[in-house]
């Protein structure tokens, strides 16, 4: 079962359920696949809706390998998803959102509070 707080999602591919996560290693793999573009450049590319089949294969493959699945991009390319191409794009969108979207505030008292700041007095 996916842990949303760790950036994981669940997806069905080829009739099998998987958990995917873009770990730091998976993100480095994507940087390398995109000619060492940094993560911001890659995220901006996807934000503009410029996602092709090769992009989907790379992102899904990296997400699968990020959770320890030894699945090659060639194997990902041969998989099916509910909804066809739209289904693959939905998986990519969910995975990128889980990876890059800011975490939701779970405590009402912390809404709007700065994150990662030390309290006054250094405590």
Supply the number of structural domains: 1
Computed CA radius of gyration, to the nearest angstrom: 16 Å
Name the helix and strand elements from N-terminus to C-terminus, one letter apiece: EEHHHHH
Strand segment count: 2
Q: Which of globular, elongated, flat, extended, rod-shaped describes the shape? A: globular
Structural class: mainly alpha
The residue-averaged pLDDT reads: 84
Give the distance, in angstroms, between the N- and C-terminal Cα atoms.
Answer: 36 Å
Pick out the low-confidence regions. Answer: 105-123
The spatial strand order of the largest sheet comes to 1-2
In terms of DSSP E residues, the strand content is 5-15%
Major pleated sheet: 2 strands, antiparallel
Q: Helicity level, as a percent range?
A: 40-55%
List the SSEs and their pairings.
Elements: E1 8-13, E2 16-21, H1 24-33, H2 39-47, H3 53-66, H4 73-77, H5 85-100
Antiparallel strand pairs: 1-2
Helix pairs in contact: 1-3, 3-5
Salient structural properties:
single chain, 123 residues, mainly alpha, two-stranded antiparallel sheet
């Amino acid at each position: 079962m996916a842990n949303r707080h760790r950036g994981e999602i669940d997806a069905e591919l080829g009739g099998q359920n998987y958990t995917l996560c873009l770990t730091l290693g998976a993100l480095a793999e994507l940087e390398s696949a995109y000619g060492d573009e940094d993560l911001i450049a890659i995220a901006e590319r996807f934000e503009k809706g410029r996602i092709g089949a090769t992009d989907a294969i790379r992102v899904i493959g990296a997400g699968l390998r990020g959770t320890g699945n030894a699945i090659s991009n060639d194997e990902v390319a041969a998989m099916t998803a509910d909804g066809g191409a739209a289904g693959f794009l939905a998986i990519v969108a969910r995975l990128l959102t889980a990876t890059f979207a800011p975490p939701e505030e779970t405590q009402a008292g912390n809404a709007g509070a700065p994150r990662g700041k030390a309290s006054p007095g250094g405590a």
